[in-house]
Design brief:
mainly alpha, Arc Repressor Mutant, subunit A, 9% strand, elongated, DNA binding, WH_DNA-bd_sf, DNA-binding transcriptional regulator, PadR family, DNA-binding
Length: 183
Protein backbone atom coordinates (compact mmCIF):
# COMPACT_ATOMS: atom_id res chain seq x y z
CA UNK A 1 0.00 0.00 0.00
CA UNK A 2 1.23 3.44 -0.79
CA UNK A 3 0.87 6.28 1.66
CA UNK A 4 -1.29 7.95 -0.96
CA UNK A 5 -4.04 5.38 -0.41
CA UNK A 6 -4.05 5.83 3.36
CA UNK A 7 -4.27 9.60 2.87
CA UNK A 8 -7.13 9.26 0.36
CA UNK A 9 -9.08 7.09 2.80
CA UNK A 10 -8.51 9.57 5.59
CA UNK A 11 -9.54 12.54 3.44
CA UNK A 12 -12.69 10.76 2.26
CA UNK A 13 -13.57 10.15 5.88
CA UNK A 14 -12.98 13.85 6.62
CA UNK A 15 -11.16 16.58 4.71
CA UNK A 16 -8.38 18.30 6.63
CA UNK A 17 -5.03 20.01 6.74
CA UNK A 18 -1.68 18.24 6.64
CA UNK A 19 -1.40 18.79 10.39
CA UNK A 20 -4.84 17.26 10.98
CA UNK A 21 -3.91 14.28 8.80
CA UNK A 22 -0.70 13.79 10.79
CA UNK A 23 -2.74 13.80 14.03
CA UNK A 24 -5.14 11.22 12.56
CA UNK A 25 -2.17 9.05 11.62
CA UNK A 26 -0.88 9.37 15.18
CA UNK A 27 -4.29 8.51 16.67
CA UNK A 28 -5.90 5.96 14.37
CA UNK A 29 -4.47 5.26 10.94
CA UNK A 30 -1.10 4.78 12.59
CA UNK A 31 -2.47 1.57 14.04
CA UNK A 32 -1.78 -0.04 10.69
CA UNK A 33 0.16 2.47 8.56
CA UNK A 34 2.72 4.88 9.94
CA UNK A 35 4.02 8.06 8.36
CA UNK A 36 5.97 11.06 9.56
CA UNK A 37 4.57 14.55 9.25
CA UNK A 38 7.19 15.31 6.58
CA UNK A 39 6.14 12.26 4.55
CA UNK A 40 2.48 13.27 4.73
CA UNK A 41 3.19 16.83 3.55
CA UNK A 42 5.48 15.63 0.75
CA UNK A 43 2.88 13.13 -0.50
CA UNK A 44 0.07 15.69 -0.24
CA UNK A 45 2.01 18.06 -2.52
CA UNK A 46 2.55 15.25 -5.04
CA UNK A 47 -1.11 14.19 -4.84
CA UNK A 48 -2.21 17.78 -5.42
CA UNK A 49 0.13 18.01 -8.43
CA UNK A 50 -1.31 14.72 -9.76
CA UNK A 51 -4.88 15.99 -9.33
CA UNK A 52 -5.85 13.47 -6.64
CA UNK A 53 -6.52 16.10 -3.98
CA UNK A 54 -7.38 19.75 -3.98
CA UNK A 55 -6.46 22.29 -1.32
CA UNK A 56 -8.44 25.24 -0.06
CA UNK A 57 -6.88 28.09 1.92
CA UNK A 58 -8.65 28.49 5.26
CA UNK A 59 -8.32 31.71 7.27
CA UNK A 60 -7.57 31.26 10.96
CA UNK A 61 -7.93 34.04 13.49
CA UNK A 62 -4.63 34.85 15.15
CA UNK A 63 -2.82 31.97 13.38
CA UNK A 64 -1.37 31.45 9.93
CA UNK A 65 -3.80 30.30 7.26
CA UNK A 66 -3.97 26.57 6.65
CA UNK A 67 -4.57 24.44 3.60
CA UNK A 68 -7.49 22.04 3.93
CA UNK A 69 -7.28 19.08 1.55
CA UNK A 70 -10.10 17.04 0.06
CA UNK A 71 -10.21 14.20 -2.45
CA UNK A 72 -11.01 14.94 -6.10
CA UNK A 73 -13.02 12.60 -8.34
CA UNK A 74 -9.69 11.57 -9.92
CA UNK A 75 -8.32 10.71 -6.45
CA UNK A 76 -11.43 8.75 -5.58
CA UNK A 77 -11.14 6.82 -8.87
CA UNK A 78 -7.50 6.00 -8.07
CA UNK A 79 -8.55 4.75 -4.64
CA UNK A 80 -11.36 2.61 -6.08
CA UNK A 81 -8.93 1.09 -8.59
CA UNK A 82 -6.54 0.27 -5.73
CA UNK A 83 -9.39 -1.10 -3.55
CA UNK A 84 -10.35 -3.57 -6.28
CA UNK A 85 -6.80 -4.81 -6.89
CA UNK A 86 -5.66 -8.02 -5.18
CA UNK A 87 -3.58 -7.75 -2.02
CA UNK A 88 -0.45 -9.81 -1.48
CA UNK A 89 0.24 -11.12 2.03
CA UNK A 90 2.93 -9.09 3.76
CA UNK A 91 6.32 -10.61 4.41
CA UNK A 92 7.03 -10.56 8.13
CA UNK A 93 10.40 -9.35 9.36
CA UNK A 94 10.66 -9.70 13.11
CA UNK A 95 14.05 -8.88 14.61
CA UNK A 96 13.05 -9.98 18.11
CA UNK A 97 12.04 -13.42 16.83
CA UNK A 98 15.50 -13.88 15.28
CA UNK A 99 17.11 -12.83 18.59
CA UNK A 100 14.95 -15.35 20.44
CA UNK A 101 16.06 -18.15 18.09
CA UNK A 102 19.63 -16.99 18.44
CA UNK A 103 19.44 -17.19 22.23
CA UNK A 104 20.14 -20.92 21.91
CA UNK A 105 23.72 -19.94 21.04
CA UNK A 106 24.19 -17.49 23.92
CA UNK A 107 25.11 -18.09 27.54
CA UNK A 108 22.78 -17.64 30.55
CA UNK A 109 23.87 -14.00 31.02
CA UNK A 110 22.94 -13.23 27.42
CA UNK A 111 19.58 -14.96 27.81
CA UNK A 112 18.95 -12.92 30.97
CA UNK A 113 19.54 -9.76 28.95
CA UNK A 114 17.10 -11.09 26.34
CA UNK A 115 14.47 -11.61 29.06
CA UNK A 116 14.80 -7.92 29.95
CA UNK A 117 14.45 -6.97 26.27
CA UNK A 118 11.36 -9.18 25.82
CA UNK A 119 9.83 -7.64 28.96
CA UNK A 120 10.47 -4.13 27.56
CA UNK A 121 8.97 -5.17 24.23
CA UNK A 122 5.98 -6.65 26.06
CA UNK A 123 5.45 -3.42 28.01
CA UNK A 124 5.31 -1.51 24.72
CA UNK A 125 2.65 -3.86 23.33
CA UNK A 126 0.69 -3.74 26.59
CA UNK A 127 0.64 0.08 26.38
CA UNK A 128 -0.51 -0.13 22.74
CA UNK A 129 -3.31 -2.54 23.67
CA UNK A 130 -4.38 -0.27 26.53
CA UNK A 131 -4.46 2.69 24.10
CA UNK A 132 -6.52 0.71 21.60
CA UNK A 133 -8.99 -0.41 24.26
CA UNK A 134 -9.37 3.15 25.56
CA UNK A 135 -9.91 4.37 21.99
CA UNK A 136 -12.51 1.68 21.40
CA UNK A 137 -14.37 2.66 24.55
CA UNK A 138 -14.17 6.36 23.62
CA UNK A 139 -14.91 6.12 19.88
CA UNK A 140 -17.22 3.10 19.62
CA UNK A 141 -19.38 3.03 22.79
CA UNK A 142 -22.43 1.61 20.98
CA UNK A 143 -21.16 -0.67 18.15
CA UNK A 144 -24.65 -1.81 17.14
CA UNK A 145 -25.54 1.76 16.12
CA UNK A 146 -22.61 2.37 13.76
CA UNK A 147 -23.00 3.26 10.10
CA UNK A 148 -20.93 1.47 7.43
CA UNK A 149 -17.93 3.82 7.66
CA UNK A 150 -17.73 3.65 11.45
CA UNK A 151 -18.33 -0.14 11.42
CA UNK A 152 -15.36 -0.63 9.11
CA UNK A 153 -13.19 1.68 11.23
CA UNK A 154 -14.19 -0.36 14.28
CA UNK A 155 -13.41 -3.71 12.65
CA UNK A 156 -9.89 -2.46 11.83
CA UNK A 157 -9.44 -1.38 15.45
CA UNK A 158 -10.70 -4.79 16.63
CA UNK A 159 -8.07 -6.37 14.39
CA UNK A 160 -5.42 -4.24 16.10
CA UNK A 161 -6.74 -5.28 19.51
CA UNK A 162 -6.68 -8.97 18.52
CA UNK A 163 -3.15 -8.60 17.14
CA UNK A 164 -1.85 -6.96 20.31
CA UNK A 165 -3.47 -9.66 22.46
CA UNK A 166 -1.86 -12.35 20.27
CA UNK A 167 1.57 -10.70 20.54
CA UNK A 168 1.23 -10.42 24.32
CA UNK A 169 0.29 -14.09 24.63
CA UNK A 170 3.29 -15.06 22.48
CA UNK A 171 5.64 -12.84 24.51
CA UNK A 172 4.37 -14.43 27.74
CA UNK A 173 5.16 -17.84 26.20
CA UNK A 174 8.63 -16.62 25.19
CA UNK A 175 9.30 -15.33 28.70
CA UNK A 176 8.14 -18.61 30.27
CA UNK A 177 10.40 -20.54 27.91
CA UNK A 178 13.46 -18.32 28.48
CA UNK A 179 13.02 -18.44 32.25
CA UNK A 180 12.94 -22.23 32.30
CA UNK A 181 16.11 -22.69 30.22
CA UNK A 182 18.66 -21.82 32.87
CA UNK A 183 17.02 -23.14 36.03
Amino acid sequence: MALEHAILVSLLEQPGSGYELARRFDRSIGRFWTATHQQIYRVLRRMESDGWVTAEEVDQDGRPDKRSYSTTPQGRAALVEWLRAPVQPEAVRHELAVKIRGAAFDDPAGRAALVAEVERYRDTHRATLDRYLAGEKRDFPAPSTLDAQRSLQHVVLRGGIAYERMVLAWLDDVLDTLRTLDR
